[in-house]
Amino acid sequence: MKKTLTILNETGIHARPASIIAKTTMKFSSDVFIEVRDKSINAKSIMNILSSGMQKGDEITISASGPDEVEAVETLVDLFNSNFGE
Amino acid sequence: MLIGTGASPEIDIRKALIIKNEPLKIKKKHIDNIEKEKETLINALNESKTELEKIKTKAFSELGEEKASIFEAHIMILEDPELIEMTNTKIEGNVNAAYALKETADEFIAIFEVMENEYMRERAADIKDVTDRVLRKITGQKITDLAVLDEEVILVAHDLTPSDTAIMDKSKVMGFLTNIGGRTSHTAIMARSLEIPAVVGLKNITKEVKNNDLVILNGETGIIEINPEEETISKYKELKEAYERDIKALEEMKGQESITSDGRKVEIAGNIGTPDDVPGLLRNDAEGVGLYRTEFIYMNRETMPTEEEQYISYKKVLEAMGEKPIVIRTLDIGGDKKLPYLEIGEEMNPFLGYRAIRLCLQEQEIFKIQLRALLRASVHGNLKIMFPMISSLEELLEAKYILNEVKEDLKNENIEFSQDIEVGIMIEIPSAAIISDILAKHVDFFSIGTNDLIQYTCAVDRMNEKIENLYQPFNPGVLRLIKTVIENGHKQGIWVGMCGEVAGDMRLIPLLIGMGLDEFSMSPISILHARRLIRSLSYEKCKEIANEALELGTAKEIEDFMAKISKTL
Questions:
Q1: Is A4 a catalytic residue?
Q2: Class of the CATH domain delimited by A2-85
Q3: Of B80, B116, B119, the CB nearest to A47
Q4: What is the CATH code for B34-139?
Q5: What gap in Å lies between CA B393 and CA B387, rounded to an integer?
Q6: What is the mean pLDDT of residues B414-433?
């Protein structure tokens, strides 16, 4: 399961959105990864997310594998598109 | 006996607690039982998590959601699957858990430390902070957790950071001792706002004192005694009691006017940084706020505060103080205060650089949001707006022009604001002081900011300990300049206040009364002392004192003259 989107968040993925992403992903048992600028990062790892330095305009691909992979990807896509409530 | 700078009065006798942030020494060891080592790691992570949960709950109820979210982030670092995975992989190579975790943490820290964004670079410190907690658990080295203290202590540290003072258990910390700092450093200001004694600039106190040593701290004289003789202890106990009696006597000053024996009435107000300082104002019977520093709303966060957040803070203070005047200073950022979300760039001389009104006139959006919040809050009390770091008439006119633009915007949006808000400026730059006769025609008040005025007039960096002796509140040049400003203000019929440390300096108050100062704004803790002093003074006599003092040529002569005079008053 895989989906591609563009980051719309004005201030990029700073601490607050990063923690929301990690916390949300933790709820799923699937392994979830975000591909950004040729790097693949673990979406459950706040430090991986933060250190990836995702910025507005970056194109990212969210992928998951496991029993709840479809739901995991859908949820994350919605989250990114919601701009994390900002 | 050690002597430092007495930064907040009162005496305390108590056990010392040293906050040491010595680097942890973690050695690499060969281990055979891999499963046991993994278990050690998981247990330490879980214990640390439980601790952090407690701190988070406490921070939430005492300091609010914003501060608590820092600890939420710390907990997430502990739960980070990559951190655990990478550490476990290292353990599987027969490495002890502590070393494996330390190495993993260092790898992450290295990534964050080279990131472009300053905010992200600072996250490296968070990772270190959290993993150090776990490492101390594994190695059995205890951490001093300021948020959970078992008994009342005097804190001893190299210096205290705003986050130290934010999380510490304020009901258990009875005094501060630090190696560095002066009367205007964060530790000193914090001590006065908490109304606990402090001595700063002790150079080596963290080495001189050991944990659980009995310490006598005299915040008035700056004297420290470590494990003193019984005799000394009882002497100080008496002093402490006398001091407490004095405090009780000061209670009688509450509700009284701040008026000289011959009828010159002045206003004694308080300096504050957040709505949390309001109880201190009320307790000390402040007649208003002479300086509300709004920087704190902007600091220790990752994004700009919204108009609504600012409005709520301003409203809280205005409402709490009823009809009393509240002077709110617009953003004074830059200099030594930086914001992670506002890149100012490195400057050769930040105190002479892009800060305060200079920044606000460039970054007008930031300025306008603050002015909107201030205007909206104005309906809740007696607001006065003050612009900092004005060095020329052009800056003042431009700032006023923007204020009017914002007023027009609000009118068009049918948003209410008070129609008679006084607008004033800080006088803290010599060029403004010198043309204060001209500036006075365009404002409703002046407030003399002595901390910067001394620094700029004498060209002395007040943080530089080597030239500390040149930073002189009694400097005749500075005092003459202050007199000029007061006279120029009065000629145009506006009131003149003062909000620097000098305003609360009992040695200088008679001089300032004599010069005709109308408003004195100081740490709330000094208010009742100042009122008692002023009520004992005669305005006519103070005028003579001021004239005589300003004829003297050196700071030392003026200081000695005032010390001599104070005995006869």
A1: no
A2: alpha beta
A3: B80
A4: 1.10.274.10
A5: 12
A6: 97
